[in-house]
Amino acid sequence: MGIKLSENCDSKFQSAYITLLSAPFQHRFIFSHRMAAKTKTSAQTDHKEAAINASLSKEDKLDLLREMVRIRKFEQTSLKHYLNGSIGGFLHLYIGQESVAVGSISLLGDDDHVITAYRDHGHALAVGMGMDECMAEVFGKATGCSKGKGGSMHYFAPDKNYWGGHGIVGGQTPLGAGLAYAVKYQGKKGCCLCYLGDGAINQGAFHEALNLAALWDLPVIYIIENNGYSMGTSQARSSAFPEEGLAARAEGYNMAWDKIDGVSIYEIRAGVQKAVERAHNESKPTLLEIATYRHKGHSVADANAEKYRTKEEIKTYMDKHDPIQFMKDDLIAEGILTEEDFKAMNQEAQKEANDAADFAIKSPFPEESEIFDDIYWEVDNNTEAGRTGRHFFHG
Amino acid sequence: MPRQITYREALREGLDEELAHDDNVVIIGEEVAEYNGAYKVTEGLWEKWGDKRLVDAPISEAGFIGMGIGASMLGIRPVMELMFYSFAYVAFDQMMNNAATCRYMSGGLVNCPIVVRGPANGGTNVGATHSHTPENIFANMPGLKVVSPSDAYDAKGLIKSAIRDNDPVYFMESTVLYGQTAEVPSNDELEDGELLVPIGRAKVKREGTDISLIAHGRAVITSLEAAEILAEKHNINAEVVDLRSIRPLDEQTIMESVRKTHRAIYIEENKPFCGVGAQISSMIMEQAFDDLDAPVLRITSADAPAFYSPPIEKLQLPQADEIVERALSIC
What pLDDT does residue A45 have? Predict the structure, then answer.
């Protein structure tokens, strides 16, 4: 038997809910169940009392909220510049999901690593990348974190243990196992958080990675950010066995798993912390599923974001399942935040994002001469191997 | 008496020496450890180095190759064995997207020092799915290096260089060559104390004056046979150039040979369409057009999936007689 961590996900209850829900809502059974089963306050209080959260200072809590607000302002600002034509390509916004990256990454230490898919801005800011380099990258500027070579989907910061930013759905999941393999091989007490969307769970590479992680006891934590839709296809229309949900796939690999309601950053921290401890202390993997919601489309180019989802559904989630609103209300109730403080926090983040956009706009585009840099390490470093033979064949 | 060892033994020696040279080298693949290797390349290494350095992987190429790529980002130097290079196709996204492009897309922040090695050849009576020769496909991708040794000496020297290289190197061998012997000096006979063959340098395997037979992998052996026939029966002195490395490519050695002989044929066991020979012949045309006395020819496998039936399958691959015949047509 796999180890199911929480007992607060009653599958019978969920099954009943699925039959009650109309088709477009079937994927949301977790959230529906949670909301029906207990009030937000009680859920929040339970997880707030977890040791990892009880130890948070007032400043720590404000920092977590501030980090989520920064991500949202970054995303809103990049959206503005996409819509005015300054940014092209794909832009997969993280708005609505901020608690997942901020909550989980807040738990990591020096030997812990992060890798994710293409909706990667939130994780990048959460690991400590700067707004300037991130914004400049989506603008395709030379000052971008990848010198304008990767774009929105491909942010990297190895100095912050951040290994991308990967464009192919599920393609990063074996890499996450590999980062964990390296940590273990080198005898370090660390882990890798490998994020994926709910659409990625049906890719073969993901299941191969799960098998290897379980087979070889790799300290990797797969975090399914379940926003309900793989692009325009709901979970109900893409993934079998809705009764248990996605994380239950871990049962097939005898791997620990859990479901977490992403509205509460406290619940995320409490749930992920157990997995981090398992990775650190037992070198065991975990599969987590965090229920979340993207307020915007799959990408900004997703013209049907309000067709495959009803406006009512979107509004419900924005009003009742928004992690920023949720934490703001909580901190106000706790007496450590005022409306004025929150307004100031937003203004400060907005200014930072605006400044980043200004930085990006003023930055130069990369030089044509950079086309052949950063392809081969040996060439870039002008080693003997890099000087031997012809590496490029244009012209 | 110079030391003769097989291609298989040469690879094993190279792997063994690199396991000793760098603690971060780990060999991962199907049946590489306890089974001693499906083709016995890694025989004895698990017994010598143990579970940490020799790892039997499940049949899960996308998973374990991708895992190796991820581990390489953090400084591990995985040497991944594909039981057949044909199986690269189930790991294609990992090999083409992740290994090849992470460096570029990170603006040079990440590199993947991984080796993926295994036999990439037809002609062994195993049907089309196990007979692929994807060197042209992988060499098409900037960021990757593709190596294809034709004898034991180069197999050892190149596998060692590949493991020390800081870029992804896809190392394509041949089951037909595993048992073939060549002179490979032991380390105490070498000035540097070890055999390292640089990636990106071709080798003139037979000097000649009348025509250049340029090839890689087992086609080099076939070309050498043809060169002997041309000399003995037709008084034609063929030069045989072994690319050894397809990307990076030693174009200087190719062009020097063509400028000397004024005639060239590219021979490969790859398919013709956009094969390695297509690239090489285009380069010869561009760079040595005025030196040519005849069109550059290409001899490849038949443009069909590998035939199962052995007598027919053999005919699909380049034969020495065919090389002789085509050479005579331009000499």
Answer: 65
CB A216 within 8 A of CB A181: yes
Q: Which residues contact A355 (CB under 8 A, 6 or more apart)?
A: A131, A132
CATH topology of domain A11-16+44-365: Rossmann fold (3.40.50)
Strands laid side by side in the B115-119 sheet = B54-56, B25-29, B77-81, B115-119, B169-173, B145-147, B245-247
Mean pLDDT, residues B246-259 taken together? 98
List, as one string, the DSSP characters of A118-170: S--HHHHHHHT--HHHHHHHHTT-TTSTTTTSS-TT---BGGGTB-----STT
* pLDDT, tens digit (0-9, with 9 covering 90-100), for A26-59: 444 444 433 333 344 455 568 999 999 999 999 9
For residue A339, give the H/E element and its range: helix A339-362
Q: What is the DSSP pairing of strand B54-56 with strand B25-29?
A: parallel
In a mutational test of the A interface, the residue from B22, B23, B51, B74 whose CB has the highest number of chain A CBs within 10 Å is B74
A81: left (phi over 0), alpha (psi -120 to 50) or beta: alpha
Q: How far is A46 from chain B (nearest CA, A)?
A: 37
ipTM score of the complex?
Answer: 0.97
Strand partners, B69: none
CB B24 within 8 A of CB B72: no
Q: For residue B1, what pLDDT is reported?
A: 75
- Closest C-alpha to A66, from A369, A372, A341: A341
Q: What is the pLDDT of residues A216-226, one digit of tens each?
A: 999 999 999 99
pLDDT for res A243: 85
Q: B175 phi and psi, to 5 degrees?
A: -65, -30
Q: What is the band of A303 on the pLDDT scale with cuts at 50, 70, 90? A: confident
Cβ–Cβ under 8 Å, residues B300 and B330: no
Contact of A206 with A173, CB cutoff 8 Å: yes
| Residue numbers of A between 158 and 217 with CB closer than 8 Å to B | 158, 163-168, 171-179, 181-183, 185-186, 204-205, 208-209, 211-212, 215
Structure tokens belonging to residue A132:
């300037």
A48: tokens are 């707030």
- From B104's Cα to the closest Cα of chain A, the distance in A is 5
Give me the residue label for tokens 């900004």: A300
Hey, what CATH topology would domain B4-189 get? Answer: Rossmann fold (3.40.50)
Q: How far apart are CA B258 and CA B282, in angstroms?
A: 13
Residue of chain B with shortest Cα separation from A366:
B107
| CATH class assigned to B203-330 | alpha beta
Q: What is the DSSP letter of B119?
A: E
Residue B2, pLDDT score: 87
CB atoms inside a 10 Å sphere around CB B56: 16
